[in-house]
Amino acid sequence: MNLKHQLNVDLADRSYPIFIGHNLLQQHNLITDYIKGSSAVIVSNTTVAPLYLDQITAALNSANIRFDTVILQDGEQFKTLATVEQIIDTLIENRHDRKTTLIALGGGVVGDITGFAAAIYQRGINFIQVPTTLLSQVDSSVGGKTGVNHPLGKNMIGAFHQPQCVIADTQTLATLPDRELSAGMAEVIKYGLIHDADFFHWLEKNISQLMQRDTNLLSEAIHVSCKTKADIVAIDEKESGIRAILNLGHTFGHAIESAMGYGNWLHGEAVATGMVMAVDLSERHQWIDDQVKSRTVELLSKANLPVKSPGEMSPQQFMNIMAIDKKVDQGVIKLVLLEKLGKALITADYQADLLQQTLKEC
Amino acid sequence: MNLKHQLNVDLADRSYPIFIGHNLLQQHNLITDYIKGSSAVIVSNTTVAPLYLDQITAALNSANIRFDTVILQDGEQFKTLATVEQIIDTLIENRHDRKTTLIALGGGVVGDITGFAAAIYQRGINFIQVPTTLLSQVDSSVGGKTGVNHPLGKNMIGAFHQPQCVIADTQTLATLPDRELSAGMAEVIKYGLIHDADFFHWLEKNISQLMQRDTNLLSEAIHVSCKTKADIVAIDEKESGIRAILNLGHTFGHAIESAMGYGNWLHGEAVATGMVMAVDLSERHQWIDDQVKSRTVELLSKANLPVKSPGEMSPQQFMNIMAIDKKVDQGVIKLVLLEKLGKALITADYQADLLQQTLKEC
């Protein structure tokens, strides 16, 4: 047994377990126990399928589950309604009824698309998440957000739909490109900043081994991250309040992603820089002392993440893009800031001139 | 005040009221009280908009609610994902945020499409149903089923999404074509058959005046129908059990619609004939006496509904189409039948030879 952690996401009749550990895909029952009917459809992409699809099909074959496979092209540009239709075509053409289960094998894009297809096929069918990137293991595997992009905006079309279970196998991280490992680590560090000063400290101590992909430490980091997110989501499933603290660094980060052209900065990279900006602005309000900022910059740097916003972006450009962000309420930009290390707040009550200083100097 | 009935659909935090009465669209607050933000998008079609759109816009203007309008072409063939995208384009292009409200003004097709757009825009926004046909007032205004068709199957793509309120204005029935009034009455009669023998008897007494569009009697019939459906849906929101009794006549009816080409028989007409077949099969099992069948045939006939299946359809054709219906479980066709007038059951425990007789002789 290599199962290191099992975590329950507590959402009444939509509760589900997250399994975290090494070589979990070889434990066939982790998947097959969560397939209620006798059929399934695996959705993966051209990068991940050659590496891990065999392990999923072996599990399904071991339990005599009939299955079909949809292999998407790899990339955020395929996260569209057209791709969802492609999955639904496969479901209907192969007569999968409402008892079938979708299995998402891949990173966040595959998970978001597949979860959304599951949310809307015959008004909702079961699905299982097998996230294969650090980012998707610590972020999109908890919370039930599914969806696709619209040409005029990211994640504009979607649904809340919870999986039957999530299997985060750290073995799949062995093949992850370095840059994507770092991008995932940005979200891990985020959980320390917003909710858990001890975890932040633990990360400071273990960051080099984590970046060397020590599987035990990675399991531990994924577990704490998922648990933190699960606790927050259990309080506020539909993001009407507290859940928004999970967006620390995201408003600044989205502006960077958007200005630099999506895909040039990875999401986690932009969030890393955005978190530095949020910490900087919090410090300018004297809510936190200057040590928090230097520690944040150091930890992110050790995770090989960028800590300065692109030189070519002006404060005005930031403001213009942030003004059309989803978090704007009645014209005021709400930001997630820190009131201390390990505790975030959502506020529109910050000083405009300090924000300008942050935009200028970060 | 012309508000005759208010009914609460009891679904915990997704509960909502249904307002039933004459000239309700002129009571602006019935709509505006249920718009939480300061903007809205009205979705209607080319048939209904010229008749009633003005009344909705007057209501919105009275409360200074900014709005846009999407006018769809009229017809089931436009109940597609492409039409949903058209609504979403309008939402994004006009910068409607997640606090906007969609208003569906029209029959079941407009309601299904609009409700689904509301379900998936930014992972779910509010919507209000203003059903303008008898069928949509008694059927789709309760239960939260939304969705669109796929080229290979009806309602294959959708979501459960509850409205903020439903406004069933009997004034809008004044312009309804006779054939559609009858089709709606088929579903009204269904509620008597499956759940309420007293209501069935009341319908027998009042059917001529109902067909003459007596607004008080129509309000009463709509109220009892919605209440019956609401009671059933409150027990089983996601149709895992009892809710399926609402499909009395629908398995046979879908087979007729499918065989005759969608649109040639109206849904309600096919359901009427399907209910006669279900009653006939129940009688052949001696669960009900022969009076129930003759009374059903007579009541449906007085509502100008067909009570015999198309002569050109063979029993084999019925069986072939019914075998691919959504209600098939592990190869067995489950049917909704009557154990007595006013009480339905869902069963796979009927005699195959009696089913053959029903298919042959109805």
Label this structure with key terms.
globular, 13 strands, two-stranded antiparallel sheet, Rossmann fold, 362 residues, 2 domains, Dehydroquinate synthase-like, alpha domain, homodimer, alpha/beta
Describe this structure in words.
Chain A is an alpha/beta fold and 362 residues long. The radius of gyration of chain A is 20 Å and the shape is globular. The first copy, chain A, has 2 domains: 3-175, Rossmann fold (3-Layer(aba) Sandwich), CATH 3.40.50.1970; 178-361, Dehydroquinate synthase-like, alpha domain, CATH 1.20.1090. The longest helix of chain A has 21 residues, at 215-235. Chain A has 13 helices and 13 strands. In chain A, α10 packs across α13. Helix content of chain A is 46%, strand content 20%. In chain A, β12 (335-340) and β13 form a beta hairpin.
TL;DR?
With 362 residues, the first copy, chain A, is an alpha/beta fold.
Write the layout of secondary structure elements.
The structure is a homodimer of 362-residue chains.
Chain A lengths: L2 E7 L6 E6 L6 H5 L6 E7 L3 H14 L3 E7 L8 H13 L7 E6 L1 H13 L5 E6 L2 H7 L4 E6 L2 E8 L4 E5 L8 H18 L1 H15 L3 H21 L14 H11 L6 H18 L5 H13 L12 H8 L5 E2 L2 E2 L1 E6 L2 E5 L4 H10 L1
Parallel strand pairs in A: 2-9, 3-4, 3-5, 5-6, 6-9
Antiparallel strand pairs in A: 1-2, 7-8, 10-11, 12-13
Helix pairs in contact in A: 3-4, 5-6, 5-8, 6-7, 6-8, 6-10, 7-8, 9-10, 9-12, 10-11, 10-13
